[in-house]
Specification:
0% strand, cell membrane, transport, single chain, mainly alpha, transmembrane helix
């Protein structure tokens, strides 16, 4: 903690504020939190610090959107996501910070292209096979860089969910998956007391922005919501690649 500069704390604070908004209003904004944390801390340690804040944000989102959940989608994703987390754990143990960022950036850009193409086609929900593919990639990206949010946001957009059902389904999904990731981060030595001492100071900012996000979600039009998700995903992918 003593080595963190004022700029680092500012970036971490912005990241914490973004987490609350991403969980309760604009899921694609979660990519910005990844960027802020990776800019303030080493990439691998930043994933552990961000993970704790994401879980806190998940709890607030579950409470706020507990009545708007598509349980069928969640059941379909269980096994592919677990497979992705397992492979992501191995990759995180052997990959460099630069490789982690570029792989996730390339995945996000590829999925973004597919999503933009589909939006020009007939407005039908994604099929079961697509769910398996997105589930695997979501588990992998969330394990190696806490970047599963954009992947799953693109999937839920493809499922044509309204804003609150989107947010409720995403809340339960990421709460479960983030809890699963905790022992892996501990085992890799990334989640430790030093990281937690930083995180505890950022929790109030997550809580504050979560309530602000709830207010926003009840007022944002469906079309604007979808455009924001796509724009944040594109911005995050380009940053990770560069």
């Amino acid at each position: 903690m003593d080595e963190l500069t004022l700029t680092s704390w500012l970036l971490l604070s912005l990241g914490a504020l973004t987490v609350g908004l991403a969980k309760t209003a604009v899921p694609g904004a979660g990519t910005l939190a990844v960027i802020f944390f990776a800019s303030a801390l080493p990439a691998r340690e930043s994933t552990a610090a961000l993970l704790v804040l994401l879980i806190i944000g998940d709890l607030f989102a579950i409470w706020m959107y507990r009545r708007t959940v598509d349980w069928g989608i969640l059941r379909r994703l269980v096994w592919p996501v677990l497979a992705g987390v397992a492979i992501g754990t191995f990759f995180l143990g052997v990959a460099s910070d630069a490789m982690v960022r570029r792989v996730i950036g390339a995945i996000l850009l590829g999925l973004l292209g597919v999503t933009m193409w589909r939006r020009r086609q007939a407005k039908v929900r994604l099929g079961r096979t697509a769910g398996y593919g997105f589930g695997w990639l979501g588990g992998f990206t969330t394990m190696v860089a806490n970047a599963g949010g954009p992947v799953m946001s693109l999937y839920l957009l493809g499922m044509r969910l309204d804003v609150k059902t989107f947010l409720g389904t995403a809340a339960y999904f990421f709460f479960a998956i983030n809890l699963i990731k905790v022992p892996f981060h501990v085992g890799l030595g990334l989640l430790n007391l030093e990281v937690l001492s930083i995180v505890v100071l950022l929790v109030p900012l997550v809580v504050l922005s979560a309530f602000a996000g709830r207010w926003m979600a009840s007022r944002i039009p469906q079309r604007a919501f979808e455009i924001l998700v796509l724009c944040f995903t594109a911005a995050g992918a380009v940053y990770l690649l560069l």
